[in-house]
Q: What sequence folds into this?
């Protein structure tokens, strides 16, 4: 269903762009045909990019393919927004043309050949054309040497210069505005996505928390998305920034990778240098299940790097003589393969009165967490929308898009993630690493 929806949306977007950027800006001919084939090529590039990266093939398509996806998205959004003002301007121009007084007659060459050609006002009374001899002209006509055809052809020739039509004027103006706006937005988004993540410092008050656990600090990071576009520098920067926070616990809340260990293992090596008082923990995200080998190979790889995976299980964090339950559940994406979340296994049999922090990739998992008395859930998945206004779509799927909120009496913190998926672009949702302190 997702594939069908995606392909349908891409086809519709490219047809709309062809209609507004090609058909509305050109007339029939070679230019329109060339631009049409160019649009077809961009459509095929998008499909090849997504198929290639999902199948671990053609990663060299990632940069041009994903960048075009971002430009395509903003072109569609901006052109749709411009439909209303475009329609208003078209209506105004149409009324202005109707109110404009009739123009003066336009001189047009008439006659069988250059020797008999005269200028006759279009719409005026017919003028009898007589042969021109000895430089003289007949009564009621005007001699024209400059308009005579050098080849002596007999076809009528219009003197009035052709003006651009209203359709082309509106089409080209709209296309120019949309093109400049889309390219500028994507350019800004690339610098945001590839730049340093923002450090968000958040205080969370848990009413039942043992006072001795006050001040316990979590470095929360999600959606790192090691993949065909990110290099090892992406991982090294994230590790360096987390270590600078001097957190007690590091929580990696899913979507670490977009590929296999064989392909991306080298990019994950810097995770071995993560520093924290009580360790680094990981739960699977939906992207861990996209790999043909499943998440198992990454669970093993992370174990060798010193990152413990919480697979429907919990551990005790002992701090200043008090204990906090830290639990983790698998992502919903593992349900189809029998590796989905098991809240009963992860949260059952806990000591009464002990506060619990749950790592769950998707915010929507909070509904089940509430049934098991969780105090705080840490999630990712949403990217904060990644590219505005896509956050409006995320709101239809998840109870929280970004930040701290309360859902079913459970506090949920959703990080925007430190990486990006698909286009290396972030607009309105900069990458984030969170330092979360319990009170």
A:
């Amino acid at each position: 269903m997702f594939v069908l929806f995606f392909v349908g949306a891409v086809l519709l977007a490219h047809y709309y762009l062809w209609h507004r950027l090609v058909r509305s800006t050109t007339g029939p001919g070679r230019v329109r045909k060339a631009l049409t084939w160019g649009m077809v090529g961009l459509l095929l590039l998008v499909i090849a990019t997504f198929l290639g990266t999902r199948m671990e093939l053609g990663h060299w398509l990632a940069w041009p393919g994903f960048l075009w996806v971002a430009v395509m998205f903003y072109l569609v959004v901006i052109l749709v927004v411009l439909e209303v003002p475009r329609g208003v301007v078209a209506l105004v121009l149409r009324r202005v043309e109707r109110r404009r007084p009739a123009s003066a007659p336009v001189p047009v060459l008439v006659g069988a050949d250059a020797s008999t050609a005269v200028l006759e006002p279009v719409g005026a009374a017919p003028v009898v054309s007589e042969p021109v001899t000895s430089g003289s002209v007949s009564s009621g006509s005007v001699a024209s040497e400059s308009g005579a055809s050098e080849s002596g052809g007999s076809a009528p020739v219009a003197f009035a210069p052709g003006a651009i039509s209203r359709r082309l004027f509106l089409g080209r103006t709209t296309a120019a505005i949309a093109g400049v706006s889309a390219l500028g937005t994507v350019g800004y988004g690339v610098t945001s996505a590839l730049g340093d993540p923002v450090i968000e410092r958040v205080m969370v008050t848990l009413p039942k928390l043992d006072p001795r656990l006050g001040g316990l600090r979590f470095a929360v990071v999600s959606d790192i998305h090691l993949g065909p576009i990110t290099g090892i520098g992406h991982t090294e920067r994230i590790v360096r920034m987390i270590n600078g926070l001097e957190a007690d616990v590091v929580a990696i809340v899913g979507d670490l990778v977009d590929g296999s260990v064989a392909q991306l293992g080298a990019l994950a090596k810097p995770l071995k240098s993560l520093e924290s008082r009580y360790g680094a923990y990981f739960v699977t995200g939906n992207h861990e299940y996209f790999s043909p080998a499943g998440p198992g190979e990454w669970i093993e790889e992370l174990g060798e790097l010193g990152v413990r995976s919480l697979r429907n299980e919990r551990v005790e964090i002992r701090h200043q003589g008090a204990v906090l339950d830290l639990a983790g559940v698998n992502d919903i994406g593992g349900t189809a393969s029998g590796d989905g979340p098991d809240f009963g296994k992860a949260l059952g049999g806990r000591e009464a009165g002990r506060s619990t922090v749950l790592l769950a990739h998707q915010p929507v998992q909070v509904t089940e967490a509430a049934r098991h008395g969780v105090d705080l859930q840490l999630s990712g998945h949403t990217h904060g929308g990644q590219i505005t206004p896509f956050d409006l779509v995320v709101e239809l799927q998840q109870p929280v898009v970004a930040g701290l909120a309360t859902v079913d009496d459970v506090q949920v913190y959703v990080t925007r993630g430190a990486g990006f998926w698909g286009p290396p672009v972030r607009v309105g949702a900069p990458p984030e690493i969170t330092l979360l302190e319990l009170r």
